[in-house]
Amino acid sequence: MLEKMKNFTQDVVTLLWKDLLAEFRTKEITISILVFALLTIVIFNFAFTPDPARVGLIAPGVLWVAFSFSGVLGLNRTFVIEKERGGLQGLVLCPVEREALFLGKAAGTFIFMCIMEMIILPVFSILLNLPVFMPGLLAIAFLSNIGFVAMGTLFSAIAVNTRARDFMLPLLFFPAIIPLLVFAVKGSSMVISGEPWSDVMGWLWKIAAFDVVYLVVSTLVFEFVLEE
Amino acid sequence: MRSFNLNAVLWSVTTILIMVALYLVFAWVPTEATMGIVQRIFYFHVPSAWVAFLSFFVVFVSSILYLAKRNIKWDTLAYCSAEIGVVFTSLALISGAIWAKPTWLSWFPWEDPRLTTTLVLWLIYVGYLLVRNYSTTYQAPRFAAVIGIAGFLDVPIIYLSVIWWRSAHPIVFRPSSDAGIAPSMLLTLMVSLVAFTMLYVVLMRLVLSIRRAELEVEELKTRIQD
Amino acid sequence: MALNPDGDRRSPLDYAVKVEGLTKFYGPLRVLRGLNLELKRGEFLVIFGANGSGKSTLTRILSTLSRPSSGRVFVEGLDLEKQAQQIRQRIGVLLHNSLLYNELSVYENLKFYGRMFHVPDLQERIKETVAQVGMESRLRQRVGTLSHGMQKRVSIARALLHDPGLLLFDEPETGLDFDALRALMGIIREPSGRKRSAIITTHNIEQGFEWASHIAILDKGQIQFMKDKKEIDASSFLNTYQSVVC
Description:
The complex is a heterotrimer of chains A (about 230), B (about 230) and C (about 250).
Chain A: H1 2-26, H2 28-47, H3 52-84, H4 87-92, H5 98-127, H6 135-159, H7 165-192, H8 197-226
Helix pairs in contact in A: 1-5, 2-3, 2-5, 3-5, 3-6, 3-7, 5-6, 5-8, 6-7, 6-8, 7-8
Chain B: H1 2-28, H2 42-69, H3 72-104, H4 113-134, H5 140-165, H6 183-225
Helix pairs in contact in B: 1-6, 2-3, 2-5, 2-6, 3-4, 3-5, 3-6, 4-5
Chain C: E1 15-26, E2 29-40, E3 44-48, H1 55-62, E4 70-75, E5 78-79, H2 84-90, E6 91-94, H3 106-116, H4 122-132, H5 148-160, E7 166-170, H6 178-189, E8 197-202, H7 205-211, E9 214-219, E10 222-228, H8 234-245
Parallel strand pairs in C: 3-8, 3-9, 6-7, 7-8
Antiparallel strand pairs in C: 1-2, 1-4, 4-5, 9-10
Helix pairs in contact in C: 4-5, 5-6
């Protein structure tokens, strides 16, 4: 039993290592999601010219739209790179649990999103003239990423197999991720307006609950998406 | 011969129920005190929403059964229920908006968790149907089943999130379906609910038989090619 | 322990591959119809068949990529339906896709797959297989920069890394240059300690005849013909092939 768990973890780590290594060579995913998040924030600033009084109101929304849109871009790339060289077949042929394949892929996207957020948050604060150091936002972002990639990896694996792979993912994913967005935005707005951490914790718990539900569900049904 | 009779029976019962419901809604039930005549839409809106959620529940269960048993009949059931579900969800949204505008002065009160959840449900349904359309015939049932399961499980979470989202602004206007409803209104609502459910059943039977015929044609086509 | 189907005296364990009544539907399209196949250990079966006859489908099912619609499949004595994971450990698969990652070097690709396949003494194994396919000089080169034939050779190394008992090669001659073809033949003919078996689907009758110990023809979703190569007269085979297929 312990042996199986050891193998399982090793398999997840191997897959993660492969994705990180490939990304390190090309920097394709991290750069594109970084730039896209930045662009989204900039565009929003032109679309809604915020005066200092109102900035706090729209800031959380802008931030999370930027994270979601660029996150979807990252999720898309996760499986497109596999599809190109029949990589998905290569993975399916490995004698590893389908759940390990899922977690390995999700972990990769999770890390890319965390990197993107760590860079974008200070930039976001500077552009919107907010306090630069807001670790609460980072905490919310990291925790939300878990649910985001849990659901997103599953939908992305489906979307990449359809004819309209570019718009299929946002179409499927955005309605379903709404609760997570709501929790993240509410929590973020509390952090930005300086509310007590105990209140923010309430939202963190809700995010964590969402994370758990979708980690479990997606891991369980993922194998059905991998068949041919 | 037997199934022909069953169809006739079902259609007649449904038609009668609908006529009774129409009479009750437009002629019999008293006008609601605060909201006026427009409140009568409630008797269409609530049953539409009920059927919408019922359809999606059927999609959910059939999807699980399909992945477990791999029998195409479960996928057929899911597909048909999803198609009908989209229609009823649209009806629920439209009737909801028509009711909301004069009542709460807004076409779409986002604070109302029911209406908002129904909108997201509509989007998920549409996603379900699009996935089917954009996948190969072979993969569509599997992918759709996954969406049917993941999507349905999301619905209660979405509902809760909408409630928590607007908790700063308490929901002042609640649809009067839960507290202190007059018995005549309750009766009308119940009849309407049953009528709509029967409508769902007969429409399902119709769409199922069409879908089965479609599948049979496909199979015959490929057999001819051999 | 493998089950004993249909009271057959020989258990599936004796066979490298045992297929009974394999049927595969893609939607309404029936690609394989009640296909039966038996391959003993140490045998090299080459399957010929026209395009669309179901060769790739058969390979995909045997390699656990695809599920049968009905029928029973045993690979290396293991039941495909229940023990797919263990089967994957025992088979080496070569497909049209290279299954390699372009941004990674030959070495990194093999290291990745070697780890996923839990290959012991991985470094040694990588050196061995890379030498077998003649790619030692390119070990650190990015796969994306290699020619098609070289990529195919690396794919072969990938398939052999975990020392599988059964090789499943789907049209291996496509995209192969002369060197790679020679390497492939060397590997197939290579005597190994334990009996290695292979099922190779191909279009190339000449090559197929060289590689095979047994020959089969797949047509209309079934094995229409299967014989030991020694019993076949090579020159008349072409006629047989055309009569069966057309």
